[in-house]
Write a structure and sequence with these properties.
alpha+beta, 9 helices, about 30% helix, binds fe (ii) ion
């Protein structure tokens, strides 16, 4: 990225952020719609102050590892209490966002992107801040889906392509052998995606398509939620406590089911990837199907390994950037698209839809790769490593293109399902 690219991307990111919140009332912005999510006005202020920390203060003085002080520090003020903070008006937050942006652009003009400073080299810190804003845009959509009061109405919605296919249950096979995972990219990738490293992979098979609503309904109708032997111990405990009997946002409609995406209520479409299931539900489904969840390593091989060239692609379709034409990403479809709608979203192994539509749960804990080094701050990845979180891959319809690639690792608690999460299954081969 050169200086003009950076300035243009910062502007574009802000336009999207503000477009998403544009239809909201003051009450919508300040209300804590769910204990899991911040009031949206908090996210807006947090986006601006994160930008100031990294693109002004940390470029001027000693780098502060950690996030910003004050009410926007996410560690001092966990999400469930953010509704009690004294939060400013939208006009005040917008004024702060603008004022910070002016200083950021002034500092950018003198930034040396070709030198040795690892923060500035190739524009790394700008890519990091852009991705931070993109990630909060997806967080907004989780909040807006949970929104209390009148459902959120988007100001602009795209139609997905009309193509659709019916899954035939087929699986793609990898014969095993050494592969290269992760990346050495220092311009965009987060520290947890690095370094590129080799691993020996046992042969496996993986679903060509993600698990659909139709597949999931069969599991439900076969008593999936009532059969303890299909669930892990933790999963069964969640099942009992939550009393869940369907994905989040599904509602009974006679003998059928309907679902709500923002303000659209429709009967469940059997030909769409299932969304809003937690890890435990995905794990139980896989056991019911006689399969298992893929490891994140298997997922990455299925998404991008080209066995003939012996190399990992950045995306399923190759190395060309992610765009809303190539996959259901970038938010404006406002929902999962029919299976196979994006015909070129196919990996060398033959898996469809690995980028976009739904994040896919894997069986892997969120752990550092061999040779991992924290950069530039521990609070992005390092403090979350351990067995509490499961890795999700591939991005969802709500993910912006600038923050998804085959190597990208997301993580969350295995009980979470307000995220746009689905899965596909694998088995040993
Ligand atoms: Fe943040």
């Amino acid at each position: 990225m050169n200086h003009e690219d950076i300035a243009a991307r910062l502007t574009e990111a802000r336009e999207r952020t503000l477009a998403l919140v544009d239809p909201l009332s003051d009450d919508d912005l300040h209300r804590q719609h769910d204990p899991l999510m911040s009031p949206i006005i908090w996210d807006l202020g947090h986006i601006a102050h994160f930008e100031e920390l990294w693109l002004v203060r940390n470029l001027e003085g000693p780098v502060e590892f950690g996030e910003m002080p004050g009410i926007y520090n996410p560690f001092e003020h966990p999400r469930r209490v953010r509704g009690q903070l004294e939060l400013p008006s939208l006009d005040d937050v917008k004024a702060v966002m603008n004022e910070i942006r002016q200083r950021v652009l002034a500092r950018l003009a003198s930034a040396n992107l070709d030198g040795d400073d690892p923060l500035l080299c190739d524009g790394y810190v700008y890519a990091m801040v852009l991705q931070h804003e993109y990630q909060h845009d997806e967080t907004f959509l989780q909040t807006l889906q949970l929104k209390q009061g009148a459902p959120y109405q988007a100001s602009r919605v795209y139609e997905p392509p009309r193509r659709r296919v019916t899954a035939d249950g087929s699986m793609a096979k990898f014969g095993g052998g050494p592969v290269e995972l992760g990346t050495d990219d220092r311009a965009v990738a987060y520290d947890n995606e690095r370094p590129r490293h080799e691993r020996e992979i046992a042969p496996f098979a993986i679903d060509v398509y993600p698990v659909t609503n139709g597949d999931y309904l069969q599991f439900m109708r076969d008593g999936g939620y009532a059969r303890e032997n299909l669930w892990s111990a933790d999963g069964w405990q969640w099942n009992r406590e939550s009393q869940a009997d369907a994905p989040k946002y599904w509602m009974r409609d006679g003998d059928d089911w309907c679902t709500r995406v923002m303000d659209r209520v429709s009967s469940v479409d059997a030909g769409l990837a299932v969304c809003h299931v937690c890890y435990h539900e995905a794990d139980a489904f896989a056991r019911w199907a006689g399969k298992r969840l893929p490891t994140e390593t298997e997922w990455e091989v299925a998404a991008g390994w080209d066995e003939s060239e012996k190399r990992m692609q950045r995306f399923p379709w190759g190395d060309e950037p992610a765009t809303p034409e190539r996959a259901n990403i970038d938010q404006l479809v406002f929902g999962v698209a029919p299976l196979g709608a994006y015909g070129t979203n196919r990996s060398p192994l033959g898996c469809y839809g690995m980028i976009g539509d739904v994040w896919e749960w894997t069986s892997s804990d969120f752990l550092p790769y061999p040779g991992y080094r924290t950069f530039p701050y521990a609070e992005y990845s390092e403090v979350f490593f351990g067995n509490e979180y499961k890795v999700l891959r591939g991005g969802s319809w709500a993910t912006r293109p600038g923050v998804i690639r085959n190597s990208f690792r997301n993580w969350d608690y295995p009980i979470r399902r307000q995220i746009f999460s689905g899965f596909r299954c694998a088995r040993d081969a």
